[in-house]
Amino acid sequence: VKARVLIRPKAGILDPQGKAVERALPALGFEGVREVRVGRLVELEADDPEALGELCEKLLANPLVEDYEIELLDGAVS
Amino acid sequence: VTRFGIVQFPGSCDERDAVAACSRVGEARLVWHEETDLSGLDAIVVPGGFSYGDYLRAGAIARFAPAMTAVADFAAAGGPVLGICNGFQVLCEAGLLPGALLPNEGLRFVCRQVDLVVESAHGAFAAGLGPGERLSIPVKHSCGRYFAPPELLGELAERGQIALRYAPGQNPNGSVDDVAGVTNEAGNVLGLMPHPEHAVDALTGSVDGLRLFASVGAARERLAAA
C-alpha cells in the first residue's frame, strides 16, 4: 500500500526553520502569514501497513520532539 | 594502557582527530561501522561528522549500524562510551542518552571556542574534574540545541546527569538550561556537543579536552585499586 507520513515539530518546540521562512515572507510582499512550521513528508510503499507505526516511532520520527501522521493513500488516516 | 575504539561511519569526519587525541593518553584504533567485535577495547568514542549524510535527522540512521548494536552492549556492560557532536546525536537517537538535539536556534552553523562549566563530575569521563571547573573547548555544529522536556530535565539535574553546561552567556545554540553534555544514569556514557578532541594541543589554544580522554584511564585505575 502507498502511504504518506507527515512529520512535524511538536507543539511548543521552537522551529527556527519555520521562523526563518516566516521572516522572509514580508520581504517578498506576503503580509499576514503567521505560525509557520516546517516538517517533512515521507512517501513510501509498504507491504504491511500495520508496521508503519513502529517504523515511524523507530526511524522516521523522533517521538520526543516530533509528531507524525500516517496517511494510507486509500484515504484512511491513522 | 587504555585502548580506545573510535567508531567510523560513512560521513564521519572527526574520527582521525579522535584517534590522535586518544593516542595521547592510550592506544587507539578505528572501528568500521560494520564491525561488531569490540573485544580488547576499554572505551569507545563515537566521533563527530555527518554520519550517513545526517539524512532524516542527525544521527537517526547511524544508530542502526551494526557497530552501534555492539556499542549498546558495551555500554550496558558498563563500558565507557563518549559521544562527541554527531556522536552525541547518535547516542541520543539510539536511546543510550536522554534527550534530543535540534537545529541551532539561530539556524547558523556555529564554530567557536566556548567555555564549559563542569556541573557533575561523577561519570567515567570526569575523573579528576571538579564541579565548577571551566574547560575551554571548541564547538562546531548546526544541530546542537539540546532539548529535554521539563520533567525529564529536572530528573537529569537531580540525578547528576547534566555533566557540562555552557558558561553563562556562551550558549551557542539555544540549548535548554545551557546544557552542553549529559550522561546516562550510570555515568559511563557521556555525550557532548563541544569537541574535546580538537582541544588537546597548546598549538590550537587549549589542552582542556585531553582531560576527558585521560579521565577514562584514571577511572579504570581507581576501579582496579578499589
Task: Give the termini separation of chain A.
Answer: 14 Å
Span of the ends, CA to CA of chain B: 18 Å
Low-confidence stretches of chain A: none
Mean pLDDT, all residues of chain A: 92
The proportion of residues forming helix of chain B, as a percent range, comes to 10-25%
Helix/strand class of chain B: alpha/beta
Give the largest interface: A-B, 11 and 19 residues
Q: Could you estimate the helical fraction of the residues of chain A in percent?
A: 25-40%
Low-confidence stretches of chain B: none
Radius of gyration of chain B: 16 Å
DSSP strand tally of chain A: 3
**Rg of Cα set of chain A:** 15 Å
Features:
heterodimer, A: 78 residues, alpha+beta, three-stranded antiparallel β-sheet, 2 helices, B: 226 residues, alpha/beta, nine-stranded mixed β-sheet, two-stranded antiparallel ribbon, 5 helices, 11 strands, globular
Describe this structure in words.
The complex is a heterodimer of chains A (78) and B (226). Chain A is built from two helices and three strands. Chain A has 78 residues and is of the alpha+beta class. Chain A is elongated, with a radius of gyration of 15 Å. Chain A starts with a strand and ends in a 6-residue tail after the last strand. The mean pLDDT of chain A is 92. Chain B has 226 residues and is of the alpha/beta class. Chain B has five helices and eleven strands, in the order βαββαβαββββαβββα. Chain B has a nine-stranded mixed sheet with strand order 2-1-3-4-11-10-9-6-7, sandwiched between helices. A two-stranded antiparallel ribbon of chain B has the order 5-8. The chains are: A alpha+beta (78), B alpha/beta (226). Chains A and B meet through α1 of A and loops of B.
